[in-house]
Amino acid sequence: MKRTKLLFTLLGLVFLMTSCYVETIVQDDFIEESAFNTDQVLQSFDLWYVDINATTGNGEVPFLQRAFTISFIDGIIYANNNIVGLGKTGNGFGIDVGSYATLRGTVEIDHDIDGLWLLDVFAVNGNTIELRDQRSGTSYFLNGYQTGNFDYDFVFYDNINYFLQEYDAWEKIFTSETGALNEFDNENFLQFNPTFFRSSIDANGTPISNLQWDFEGDYQVYDVENDETLKTLTLAYDSMGNDYFELYVNNDSTIELYHPSSETVYEFRGRGYQQYLKSGKNSTARKRTKISNPTMKVERKRKK
Fold first, then answer.
1. pTM of structure
2. What is the distance between the alpha carbons of residues 229 and 220, in angstroms, rounded to a whole number?
3. How many CB atoms within 10 Å of residue 187?
4. What is the Cα–Cα distance from 111 to 119, expressed in whole angstroms?
5. C-alpha 119: how far from its chain's center?
6. Pairing of strands 31-32, 47-50
7. How far is it, in rounded angstroms, from Cα 247 to Cα 29?
8. Does residue 17 register a pLDDT over 60?
9. What is the average pLDDT value for the chain, to the nearest integer?
10. Bridge partners of 170?
11. Is 95 helix (H, G, I), strand (E, B) or coil?
């Protein structure tokens, strides 16, 4: 891929070429700009969505590996490290995680936990930049948005696996009166970990620390063909086989599981929110990885 380092046409920034602009043309249309214009590019969008699936290289920049979005605002770098609260935390920008300064075609980031990083900045197209760590040869690709047109729903559904894991447990708070009796009626708590789920039949209101997890098994979230706002979920129970649900998100603390085989609706509320801040155990415990949910060819059964 031919890359242009801070290409001056990015976002119409040609109009920013003032007396402080310095242009150095190297081979292969490699164009460097001044530190001033580097900062203008980074601040040209309110939010940069980290497209983790587009990452290349075998290394890692820890704070980019954790973030869903980052923002560069007047020397401060902000990040949304959680799906819960996305769009609300820090007026949508997330939390303050460090500071930055710009050089010519490069950004120097002093992260509160991960320390000092020097990343090259390349323009890919009109709303995409590449941040490259030369030490590891790793590149992250960031898509720019303004807060007014940022598709929070897309980010939410595109990363729903992480959302399920951001609570210590999900407690059942509602079961519809309609629907056939089935074994899942007895499950009052669910917990989702990166590679397995657990369930409990303990009574509602039981403290999380006192929960007795009765079952542990595999689970899988699926995309649905031609339906971007529907996810499906299978829970692998030994006694019931793969129990199948349509997964709906009411808000960032409540989900609905619709059980098509019994036509029962269950509502679960998250308990024990795990906020991934810039310090403490959770700051390194959860990092994003490339995820591609399998696609299921089904039709939505839930009738609103």
1. 0.80
2. 17
3. 20
4. 12
5. 21
6. unpaired
7. 48
8. no
9. 85
10. 190, 270
11. strand
